[in-house]
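Renewal narrative, Specific Aim 1. Our central claim is that a sequence can be written position by position from structural information alone. The example that follows is taken directly from our test logs and has not been curated for this report. It begins with the structure tokens describing the chain, in the order in which they were read.
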């Protein structure tokens, strides 16, 4: 389903020009390439594999989606998703990420993850300077800082292998015991996922709220490139056939 939604978002603004880079390929971590063809649709496929779309120039295409679920199951079998990460490997991860603090700015909020400490959601007030002289600061309003989770001690902190919906490997742990959520009356909690940054892939952090006051932070970093997370990149093809 996420693949279909991504096709809607990306291909709806597609332009058929040779000079235009493939935005879907970029959005899917260089795992997918889209080809437009005038050949007829292949027969015998279930309707679930077809997705219709119209380009800006008015051309109408039907795209054949790859069987991502089948590939994901095969990869999960080899990777042993949901199994625990060995203690010696956890220690190796701690050594790589120690003293790491990373900020993510999203609109009004800044999210700050400090390894083995906590993750905060904070609003940093605007400061206006002129020639190095402070003119004004943004007035403080309601609460502008929330604790989204704290790291357990190293003695009890556990990690598990995981596989996301696109077949990308990660290891994860939980930072529980954040501030109490006013909507659920339960402490906020954040799952931390570590992804290996592929060659030429930007190191980054993303955050999404998967349930009320429950979050997932995805950290893509070369520090996470342990052997278990490295995988061969297989470029898949999405073929779109023109309907005339």
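The sequence written for that structure reads:
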């Amino acid at each position: 389903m996420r693949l279909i939604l991504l096709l809607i978002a990306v291909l709806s603004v597609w332009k058929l020009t040779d000079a235009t880079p493939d935005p879907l390929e970029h959005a899917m971590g260089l795992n997918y390439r889209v080809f437009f063809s005038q050949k007829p649709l292949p027969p015998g496929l279930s309707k679930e594999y077809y997705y219709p779309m119209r380009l800006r120039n008015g051309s109408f295409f039907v795209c054949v989606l790859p069987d991502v679920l089948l590939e994901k199951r095969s990869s999960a079998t080899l990777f042993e998703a949901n199994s625990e990460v060995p203690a010696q490997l956890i220690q190796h991860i701690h050594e790589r990420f120690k003293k790491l603090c990373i900020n993510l700015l999203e609109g009004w909020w800044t999210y700050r993850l400090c390894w083995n400490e906590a993750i905060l959601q904070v609003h940093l007030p605007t400061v206006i300077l002129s020639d190095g002289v402070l003119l004004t600061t943004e007035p403080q309003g309601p609460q502008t800082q929330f604790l989204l989770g704290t790291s357990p001690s190293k003695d009890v902190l556990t990690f598990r292998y995981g596989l996301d919906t696109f077949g990308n490997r990660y290891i994860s742990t939980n930072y529980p015991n954040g501030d109490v959520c006013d909507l659920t009356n339960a402490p906020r909690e954040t799952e931390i996922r570590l992804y290996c940054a592929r060659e030429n892939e930007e190191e980054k952090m993303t955050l999404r709220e998967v349930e009320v006051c429950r979050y997932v932070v995805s950290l893509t970093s070369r520090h996470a490139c342990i052997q278990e997370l490295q995988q061969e990149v297989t470029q898949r093809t999405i073929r779109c056939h023109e309907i005339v």
